[in-house]
Amino acid sequence: xxxxxxxxxxxxxxxxxxxxxxxxxxxxxxxxxxxxxxxxxxxxxxxxxxxxxxxxxxxxxxxxxxxxxxxxxxxxxxxxxxxxxxxxxxxxxxxxxxxxxxxxxxxxxxxxxxxxxxxxxxxxxxxxxxxxxxxxxxxxxxxxxxxxxxxxxxxxxxxxxxxxxxxxxxxxxxxxxxxxxxxxxxxxxxxxxxxxxxxxxxxxxxxxxxxxxxxxxxxxxxxxxxxxxxxxxxxxxxxxxxxxxxxxxxxxxxxxxxxxxxxxxxxxxxxxxxxxxxxxxxxxxxxxxxxxxxxxxxxxxxxxxxxxxxxxxxxxxxxxxxxxxxxxxxxxxxxxxxxxxxxxxxxxxxxxxxxxxxxxxxxxxxxxxxxx
Length: 372
Fold this sequence. Notes:
By secondary structure, this protein is α/β, with parallel strands linked by helices. It is built from 16 helices and 11 strands. The strands form 3 sheets. It has a 6-stranded mixed sheet, sandwiched between helices. It has a 3-stranded antiparallel sheet with strand order 2-3-11, with no helix packed on it. The chain has a two-stranded parallel sheet with strand order 1-7. Helix 1 runs parallel beside helix 5 (138-146), helix 4 (97-106) packs parallel to helix 12 (275-287) and helix 6 (162-170) runs parallel beside helix 10 (229-236).
């Protein structure tokens, strides 16, 4: 697993294993949720420790050192609206997943792409949020998408993605942040949200110990003085390049999210089936691996119509282009093959230390008696 990556072949195999041949991909999960009233733990925001980690992947060498097998982990969290007219977005996400991985990893050379694609509804629904783990393999990503429980109902009025934004801001533990860089975060909807969080709903979504989990992850949130949605996003922007991708042309939606994110982070998404192309464009521009004058060619080459490519290009023209490249200026990002003394170390060892390690005794990893 330490060297495994997402492939189209593994995606095809996972689709055969987890996606039913007819009907919605989440059909079994929806039925189980009706029977039990619960989410599968893999997509329940309150399970698996609540905090979602994105760590480096290593293999231990005979000399005891740890080799970075793919590259520095890059978390990309996506939360999709699945209410009303957006109810089929899980099936869309599964269908475009190979393009999403290929296009995003293509503008993130040298990184190990970690994806967490979840869904949200509103507080009147049975489940406000489904939040998976960060994963890098097709089998795990497909499985978790099929475990989502979309509401598929409700009018296009205020929704509650701000509980997912809360998770993105305070309940992620990512190596990329430890070295002074940021991951990526995307919220996709056609509706505005609400300005305020509720203590009751936070505990409902993330469990009764949510504030203790937030504190253990390095943040302090006062249950009696909760941040507004705008303040949550301000905190999210400290650890992630975050954007709102708007489906449709609702002026109230645009107005709300422009106030929350700023006009430079609200991007047009002509169709959710174009999510991979739009995400990759934003990531590439932010990372400095794609330039503004390349955007239209990049999009049209990747199956976006000329008219939609023009709309997207105009929409991304004012994002913070090169923001990650600026952060990376004085940082040597760990690369595939770098050696670490410990899995928890911040930086790999130097070339001098590597040379010394090559003369160290070989670590005996065979099983045998333990001597006291």
